[in-house]
Design goal:
Mean pLDDT: 89
Largest sheet: 6 strands, mixed
Structural class: alpha/beta
CATH class of the largest domain: Alpha Beta
Domain Molybdopterin oxidoreductase: 186-567
GO biological process, one term: cellular respiration
CATH topology of the largest domain: Rossmann fold
Strand order of the largest sheet: 6-5-18-17-16-7
Cofactor: Mo-bis(molybdopterin guanine dinucleotide); [4Fe-4S] cluster
Biased composition (Polar residues): 7-25
Keywords: 4Fe-4S, Iron, Iron-sulfur, Metal-binding, Molybdenum, Oxidoreductase
Number of strands: 33
Helix content: 25-40%
Strand content: 15-25%
CATH architecture of the largest domain: 3-Layer(aba) Sandwich
Distance between the termini: 61 Å
Number of helices: 32
Low-confidence stretches: 1-6, 9-23, 837-850
């Protein structure tokens, strides 16, 4: 093995030749992953030390008149056209759209080079989703339409430089749509909005660092600062970000994970001992049955469809549970098939691969009842076939709590199950029959589950199902939370967490010779509350767009306005950069696709995907002209300017000049990262330790724990509906690429509300009518205006709208139990015709299929 580049600088940036891949597990085998990590238990009663005081509902409807800088997207309609919803995902259209975005944004040469190096073993990691890459062979085009859009946006050859910001005030920029803000071009120079200014103007990096240091050091307490992170940030800068915050003296490290998969971690840690999934990509191929719950892979994780297609061809059955029958849950045409002469004709003319064998159109928030219904059927089947359905041997050897769990499921009435889930007993029996005799079972879920009121408890029922079947810790079986942003899982591994364990802090203290804080800090919801109440004075965002990602948009905006300083590190303009503190800094950084040259040469970073594989990220595109810096260099500059003699300045300089120095630190602090620099240079990267994958459950009692949950009912007023927020197809996270949602048949508009036709008829609402939506929470009301009613195949009593447009309806105090995740998948609303003057007429070509 070559020496680490910290010992031999000539090895900086090098990777091993792509030859034999000894670390690649074969189908049906478990990867060589090293020693199991320490546990990551959540605090036992997390609600007790959170701020329970009330924040009054903001005047959402009139905010546009109260503040010249819009926190919400503008209400002007952009020209709705409706078509029938798609029944097939991907195909030729996806290929055409991928090329169109890539060549439009970055030009043919730049765009093509970016695509061909994305997700390759010697290239860079896609900056959108965290779906894993194949361990062995990777195709030339190892990307999906969404990844192509993300890379095209990163490769944009347009610049949003000082001239752009001199021309447009913050108020003018806020009246642009989110799409137009993103398409304005790459940020190229550090900018400042000084007190009283209404424009961003150029600033030297040295002064920007001095401003940050001065404002942070002027705080009465380090806890008056909030350090927010996006899941797009690679491991190395994420590690430095949490290190700086802790050396400064606070654990106020909220991140986007608090709003997406925090419920997964909160459910998995006490039950299995690790807040991550327990499967590999090869397990998907080996599974006999795959449950997909609360997830839309065709839009949010399109490369997952390739894995599901392979599983289907290997004989797997797929059960899909979702309020909407999404195109990706229906049929899939694999774009890779067009390059195979034997498959090209069929892929072009046929319907593709049928993904779902059984579709259960669950009511919003009804997944927990649905899971209980399946398990109740399984227990009844076990009564008729003793020892054939429930894996008693596994349960006796590896688990605790089975008897209480079993009694809880048996005692649940069929009436409650059917009422809450919206699924009949007969439909649930069909699902149970598909599972009854199978042992290789995988359950996948995403934000459709985690953002429910009982998201944590629903995931615990998923774990219960896996445990009763013994379907964990063996090939083809296990839990699979499908994460969103490229490194949202890795950021948590790197220590970006407001609840750090004592073991992690002790290791950090030993490595860097300082005393870190051990008290828990603010998560995202608590940070928003603290900012709103004036308890904080500095908000520092490393990537992301909290204003558009978080709940209660106008509460976040008011909190931002109360800060002395807001700092935004980013690649492109977004709405969150415009609602600012008294002073605001906008600092441009590199993307995953950019070449990062430092003193020791071409640097690489790393990301951890949804299945615990850490692989390299090495940019290939020359950055645009300007003064952009890497995230590592920016953080080092901030740390030196702020901490001074309180830190080891020479070490920060060394980490900036050679990122291998950062990785050597990580190797000594975080279990599983031993020999980090050497392992990262393996083609394809390496697997992190995963106890549940090996049936090593690092819970407090060393066992896998069944959970006895409480199935809560809810009551609604006669006119009330349940709203869930979703993404469109031309969107990833808060980044809007265009106004279209091709798979759902929506073109040219985002201010839409999907409604059941019968619910529309009851309210005398017709297709294309303009409506206002009001949310209701503990007597409070929030109203967004001028949405368009769209009839759709959605359960009675449920409606759906896109975020961030619908985020102002999500109350800051409405959170999931334990995880404190905003309940964006459970918002009580009423709908009525809009009373405002209507703008441009709508173009409706064809009614959406009901």
């Amino acid at each position: 093995m070559e020496k680490s580049p910290t010992e031999d600088p000539s090895n900086a940036g090098k990777t091993e030749q792509q030859g034999a891949e000894n670390n690649v597990p074969k189908s049906g085998e478990r990867p060589d992953q090293g020693t199991a990590p320490t546990n990551d238990h959540y605090r036992p009663d997390p609600q007790m030390d959170r701020d329970q005081s009330n924040i009054p509902a903001p005047d959402v409807a009139n905010a546009k008149y109260l503040h010249p800088i819009l926190a919400q997207p503008p209400e002007e309609l952009t020209g709705l056209q409706l078509e029938e919803r798609a029944k097939v995902a991907a195909g030729v259209t996806a290929v055409i759209k991928s090329m169109e975005f890539s060549w439009t944004e970055g030009g043919v040469n730049r765009g093509t080079r970016g695509l061909l190096k994305m997700n390759q073993k010697d290239g860079f990691d896609c900056s959108s989703c965290a779906w894993p890459d194949p361990d062995d062979h990777r195709s030339v085009a190892e990307f999906c339409e969404n990844g192509a859009k993300a890379t095209a946006s990163d490769a944009d050859d347009k610049a949003a430089g000082p001239e752009f910001f001199a021309k447009h005030s913050l108020a003018e920029l806020s009246k642009m749509t989110d799409r137009d803000q993103n398409n304005a071009g790459r940020l190229t120079h550090p900018l400042v909005k000084r007190p009283g200014d209404n424009h961003y103007s150029p600033i030297e990096w040295s002064e920007a660092f001095q401003i940050i240091g001065r404002e942070l050091n002027a705080l009465d307490s380090p806890d008056e600062a909030v350090f927010y992170t996006s899941g797009k940030v690679p491991n190395e800068p994420a590690f430095l970000f949490q290190l700086f915050a802790k050396q400064f003296g606070t654990n106020n490290l909220p991140d986007c994970s608090n709003m997406c998969h925090e419920s997964s971690g909160a459910a998995l840690s006490p039950t299995l001992g690790l807040g991550k999934g327990s499967v590999t990509l090869n397990d998907i191929y080996e599974a006999e049955v795959i449950l997909i719950i609360g997830q839309n892979p065709g839009t949010n994780h399109p490369r997952m469809l390739t894995a599901l297609q392979k599983a289907k061809r290997n004989g797997a059955k797929i059960i899909s549970v979702n309020p909407l029958l999404e195109a990706g849950l229906n049929h899939f045409k694999n774009p890779q098939d067009f390059m195979n002469p034997l498959k090209a004709i069929g892929a072009l003319l046929g319907d593709g691969t049928q993904i779902t064998d059984l579709f259960l159109q669950v009511r919003v928030d009804g997944d927990m009842a649905l899971l209980r219904g399946i398990m109740k059927h399984l227990f009844e089947a076990e009564d008729l076939n003793p020892g054939q359905v429930v894996d008693h041997e596994f349960i006796a050897k590896y688990t605790t709590g089975f008897e209480s769990f079993e009694q809880n499921i048996r005692n649940t009435s069929w009436e409650d199950i059917e009422e809450l889930s919206g699924i009949t007993r007969a439909q649930l029996l069909e699902a149970a029959n598909m599972l009854a005799t199978k042992k290789k079972i995988i359950t996948c879920w995403a934000m459709g589950v985690t953002q429910q009121r009982q998201g944590v408890q629903t995931i615990q029922e998923i774990v219960n199902l896996q445990l009763m079947k013994g379907a964990i810790g063996k090939p083809g079986a296990g839990t699979c939370p499908v994460r969103g942003h490229s490194n949202v899982q890795g950021d948590r591994t790197m220590g970006v967490w407001e609840q750090p364990t004592k073991e992690f802090q002790d290791a950090l203290a030993k490595e860097f010779n300082f005393k870190p804080p051990y008290e828990h800090g603010y998560d995202t919801v608590e940070a928003i509350k603290a900012m709103y109440k004036g308890k904080t004075k500095v908000f520092f965002s490393l990537g992301g767009n909290l204003l558009a990602a978080g709940p209660d948009t106008e509460v976040i905006a008011e909190g931002m306005r109360k800060q002395k300083l807001t700092v935004f590190v980013g690649t492109k303009l977004n709405r969150g950069h415009l609602t600012t503190g008294e002073t605001s800094l906008l600092l441009p950084c590199f993307t995953h696709a950019d070449v990062d040259m430092q003193r020791s040469g071409h640097q690489m970073t790393s990301c951890e995907n949804s299945m615990g594989v850490v692989s390299q990220n090495k940019g290939v595109l020359v950055p645009l002209e300007g003064q952009m810096m890497s995230e590592v260099a920016i953080l080092s500059g901030v740390a030196i300017a702020t901490l001074g003699e309180r830190t080891n300045i020479a070490d920060w300089v060394a980490m900036t000049e050679n990122y291998d120095v950062i990785r050597d630190h990580i190797a000594r602090v975080i279990p599983g990262f031993d020999n980090f620099n050497e392992k990262l240079r393996r083609p394809g990267g390496f697997y992190l330790p995963n106890g549940p994958r090996e049936r090593k459950f690092t819970t407090k009692n060393g066992m896998a724990n069944f959970t006895t949950t409480e199935l809560e009912k809810y009551t609604l007023e006669p006119d009330q509906l349940i709203l869930m927020t979703v993404r469109s197809h031309d969107q990833f996270n808060t980044t809007i690429y265009d106004y279209n949602d091709r798979y759902r048949g929506v073109h040219g508009e985002r201010r839409v509300l999907f409604m059941n036709r019968e619910d529309m008829a009851e309210r005398s609402i017709k297709a294309k009518d303009l409506i206002d939506i009001t949310s209701h929470f503990k007597g409070e009301k929030r109203t967004v205006e001028k949405f368009v009613a769209v009839p759709y195949d959605i359960p009675r009593g449920n409606v759906s709208a896109y975020f961030p447009e619908a985020n102002p309806l999500v109350p800051i105090a409405s959170v999931a139990k334990v995880s404190n995740t905003p309940t964006s998948k459970y918002v009580v609303v009423t709908v009525e015709p809009t009373r405002k003057t209507v703008g441009a007429p709508l173009d409706i070509r064809l009614a959406v299929e009901a």
